[in-house]
TrEMBL record:
The chain crosses the membrane at residues 219-241. This is Fibronectin type-III domain-containing protein. GO terms for cellular component: plasma membrane. Residues 1-25 form the signal peptide. Gene3D superfamilies: Immunoglobulins (2.60.40.10). The keyword Transmembrane helix applies. Residues 119-206 form the Interferon/interleukin receptor domain. The lineage of its organism: Eukaryota, Metazoa, Chordata, Craniata, Vertebrata. It comes from Pangasianodon hypophthalmus. Pfam families: Interfer-bind, Tissue_fac. InterPro entries: FN3_dom, FN3_sf, Ig-like_fold, Interferon/interleukin_rcp_dom, Type-II_Cytokine-TF_Rcpt.
Length: 309
């Protein structure tokens, strides 16, 4: 009895195992050893990879996946891709006909996996000096390359192509003795075994402000000039004030001339030449006055005669 029971149990276990095995073999196995190096994603396909294609996706948010590759190759080279895959994960799936495998994830893409990572540069300009900080975007590159990776800080005057190296003794540099009023540009690149590596950082260009000493000199000069200017202006105003009448007299003749002309033009003697300079005008003016007086006298006489009549 007991023996029969055990035999039945063994048969059941066997059956369950067989059905699981069948299910497994009918499912396509996922790609293995998914890894990223120098902007190339690689993986190993299933053993019997005839007619198998692979689908590669990356996540744009935590749960949103986007297709980037469909094909039979066991790699995806994104060196020239427009997308920035930094900070994302890849996942790869095998496909045969309507059979698909589970997804296989890559590690989070970091600087060590790319060929384009750039150092981060920060700059602070004070009077007389510039502070420069250099940082890795993440610690992966340092972990991978150890002491072989280093920063190479550069600076140059704007519009000059002569880039000069600074010695990177630490990740915080203080740069002094820059020419004030000049615009300088700063940039940091990676050196891997003393050769440029990855991409250089962004360039930051800043005008170096003048030192406190230079500014004092400028402020004093400006003050002296202002005081001198105001003194000159004051003198001018005082002169005008004290000589007001004389200046008015000096300005008068040219202002009065138009009146003379007016009377001259409206007088009843058109046979007189119109424009004559100098004394002749004054003479003619006197003459007109005289004529007018005579005319007035005649009118008065007429009026008196009328009254008498
Ligand atoms: C691969 O696919 C082609 C058609 O796309 C088919 O003719 C061929 O038999 C397939 N090979 C295997 C081993 O399934
Ligand atoms: C992709 O997913 C990982 C976790 O799997 C997450 O850390 C990462 O931030 C995601 N990427 C983006 C761009 O959201
Ligand atoms: C990959 O193929 C699927 C269909 O199998 C299609 O929907 C998708 O757009 C393709 N993606 C790319 C990147 O070619
Ligand atoms: C990836 O593509 C770039 C050019 O786009 C090429 O220089 C590089 O050798 C390729 N890498 C591999 C592993 O094929
Ligand atoms: C897969 O496709 C074949 C024909 O190509 C079809 O007979 C089969 O039912 C499909 N299986 C599933 C699970 O859709």
């Amino acid at each position: 009895m007991i023996v029969v029971m055990d035999w039945r149990r063994a048969f059941l276990v066997c059956e369950v195992f067989l059905t699981i095995h069948c299910a497994c073999s009918s499912v396509l196995s996922p790609p293995q050893r998914v890894k990223v190096e120098s902007s190339v994603l690689t993986w190993n396909g299933p053993k019997n990879h005839i007619n198998i294609t692979y689908v590669v996706q990356y996540n744009t948010t935590l749960n949103d996946w986007r297709d980037v590759y469909n094909g039979t190759q066991q790699q995806f080279n994104f060196t020239a891709a427009a997308e920035d895959f930094y900070g994302t994960r890849f996942r790869v799936q095998s496909k045969r006909g309507n059979q698909t495998s589970a997804w296989e994830m890559s590690k989070l893409v970091q600087c060590a996996h790319l060929h384009t990572c750039a150092p981060i540069i920060e700059l602070k300009v004070e009077t007389d000096r510039v502070h420069l900080w250099m940082k890795h975007r993440d610690p992966s590159l340092e972990e991978k390359e150890g002491g072989h990776i280093s920063f190479n800080p550069l600076y140059w005057k704007r519009n000059s192509n002569n880039k000069e190296e600074l010695s990177a003794t630490s990740t915080h540099l203080v740069i002094e003795h820059l020419e004030s009023g000049q615009e300088y540009c700063f940039q940091v690149e990676y050196l891997l075994l003393h050769k440029p590596h990855g991409k250089p950082s962004r360039e930051i260009c800043k005008v170096i402000p003048e030192t406190s000493k230079q500014r004092n000199v400028r402020v004093i000069m400006l003050g002296v000039l202002t005081v001198a200017g105001m003194a000159v202006l004051g003198c001018c105003l005082y002169f005008v004030y004290t000589h007001y009448k004389r200046i008015k007299a000096l300005l008068q003749p040219p202002l009065d001339i138009p009146d003379h002309f007016e009377e001259f033009f409206f007088s009843e003697f058109p046979q007189h030449p119109v424009a004559r300079p100098g004394n002749q005008e004054v003479e003619s003016y006197d003459f007109v006055n005289f004529v007018e007086e005579v005319a007035e006298d005649e009118e008065r006489c007429d009026l008196e005669n009328e009254k008498k009549m």
